[in-house]
Amino acid sequence: MDEVRPVRPVAQLRARAKRALIGVTVAAGAVGLFAASGLAQMFETQIFDPIKREWVDYDPQQAMKYYQAHGQTPEEFRRQIVDFRTAEKPGTIIIDGDRHFLYLVMPGFKAIRYGIGVGRDGFGWAGIVEVGRKAEWPTWTPPPEMVARDPNAAKWKDGMPGGPDNPLGARAMYLHENGQDTIYRIHGTSQPWSIGLNISSGCIRMVNDEIEHLYEQVEVGAKVIVLMQGAALYKGV
Question: How many distinct structural domains can be found in the chain?
């Protein structure tokens, strides 16, 4: 789909499994998605270590160490313009959860690529939705399922005011399907080290500076295509 590949799956076998499980026809303006929920998290992230000159696994421990040492995410997860061939119109968002990239389609077969954090094991999903609304420094209200399983979320069952410690970060774009809230969002985060990981409860998280940039580019009603490796399909797709 794009011509820049700085992040790769762990093994070629997994790459072949990826192609076998999920067919993507973005160039034709359509997306074919085939679920395999048992393999939702088999595709891990690797980054290139310029000192060792080799690909290394990128897990939460490595991510935290990198962020503490550099104060930012690895270069491949920072905002950049890349070649990107698609029939989707400019302003469309395409999310590649396997490689932890969000693409904002631009004219001339280009896209702005951002690094993202995505759903952890059991929380991946795929579908075609739209930006239903946008909010600055949004209130976070955990869904009932999260309140039931997480004591820390339970204390905010009536809503956590926006701010630096809020899990939704500086901005949020609420994803809707047929006018209904899907409970999924594209949002900032109070854990910037987590970009590039499978770590969320299904939402797409970004560094606050990046979500602020994306927020200004995207209109309410924008199409959002979510490609998630081996995920359960979201209804309507």
Answer: 1
176 tagged catalytic: no
For residue 59, the enclosing domain spans 12-233
Catalytic residue among 70, 176, 203, 213: 203
Measured CA to CA, the distance from residue 125 to residue 119 in angstroms comes to: 8
Q: CATH code at 126?
A: 2.40.440.10
Of the residues 70, 176, 187, 213, only one is catalytic, namely 187
pLDDT attached to residue 122:
66
Q: 27 in a domain, yes or no?
A: yes
**pLDDT at residue 141 is higher than 50:** yes
Q: Tell which residue, 71, 181, 199, 205, has the closest CA to residue 132.
A: 181
Q: Are 217 and 120 in contact (CB under 8 A)?
A: no
Element of type H or E holding 114? strand 110-115
- Evaluate whether residue 59 is within a structural domain: yes
Asked if 100 is an active-site residue, the reply is no
